[in-house]
Write a structure and sequence with these properties.
- With 215 residues, the chain is α/β, with parallel strands linked by helices.
- 39% of the residues lie in helices and 13% in strands.
- The strands form two sheets. It has a five-stranded parallel β-sheet with strand order 4-5-3-6-7, sandwiched between helices. Strands 1-2 form a two-stranded antiparallel ribbon.
- A hairpin with a 2-residue loop joins strand 1 and strand 2.
- Helix 1 crosses helix 7, helix 3 runs parallel beside helix 4 and helix 5 runs antiparallel to helix 6.
- The protein is globular and about 40 Å long.
- The termini are far apart.
């Protein structure tokens, strides 16, 4: 059966490439239905920015955090902080596939979405390729990468298993620097508050719709 209650759910196929408007100078791209992937290290503020951006869009928009979905597993949760192994990788893959399914179905029902994940440029197993397979070629990746001092400061304010050691934060941040030169849009929010960063994200998404990045 393909219904929930009285509401029929359209099948969520791969999100296609966005269609650039005929005249970008007059089009209101803030109302476009989009799927955005916000990339950044722990402490970059990507989840906070993603929520703020989703809350204030002029069209229905959902926020999907891969970390939140991973932590749906309670008993038997494979915490990557205890070491990356086949169990943590399997749970990551499952969470990413679940996020992709949710994103496709939100878009099929006219709801934009923004996903966030710490995607490494040098690790294909948890790279952009998987997101593209699960969401579709229309996914718009954007990197949020503040300076190391800022990331360390923000990480120190976190609690529970979301807080990492300074050494781990520095290691992740260093690997994230590989996004420079990748062709993906990068936002350095070292000196910007959440609202300003979300506004910058809006501008980046608008440019990406008008001229989708090649990735």
């Amino acid at each position: 059966m393909n219904t929930t209650g009285h509401i029929q759910l359209p099948p969520g196929g791969p999100v296609p490439l966005p269609h650039p408007p005929a005249d970008p100078s007059v089009a209101d791209l803030s109302q476009a239905a989009v799927a955005v992937l916000l990339i950044g290290p722990a402490g970059a503020g990507k989840t906070t920015v993603a929520r703020h951006w989703a809350d204030r869009r002029r069209v229905p928009t959902a926020h999907i955090s891969l970390d939140d979905v991973r932590e749906w597993v309670r008993s038997g949760f494979a915490n990557p902080q205890s070491g990356w192994n086949e169990n943590s990788e399997a749970q990551y893959r499952l969470a990413r596939r679940t996020c992709g399914f949710a994103a496709r179905n939100f878009l099929a029902n006219g709801i934009s979405c923004i996903l966030d994940d710490a995607v490494f440029p040098d690790r294909p197993v948890v790279g952009l390729g998987g997101w593209k397979r699960h969401v579709g070629p229309g996914l718009l990746p954007v990197v949020v990468l503040p300076g190391l001092e800022i990331v360390l400061e923000r990480n120190a304010a976190r609690s529970g298993n979301r807080r990492l050691s300074d050494e781990e934060v520095a290691r992740i941040h260093g690997r994230m620097a590989g996004w420079y030169g990748s062709g993906l849009p990068i936002i350095d929010n070292s000196t910007h508050d959440v609202e300003t960063t979300a506004r910058m994200l809006d501008e980046v998404v608008t440019r990406s719709i008008a001229s989708p990045p090649s990735w």
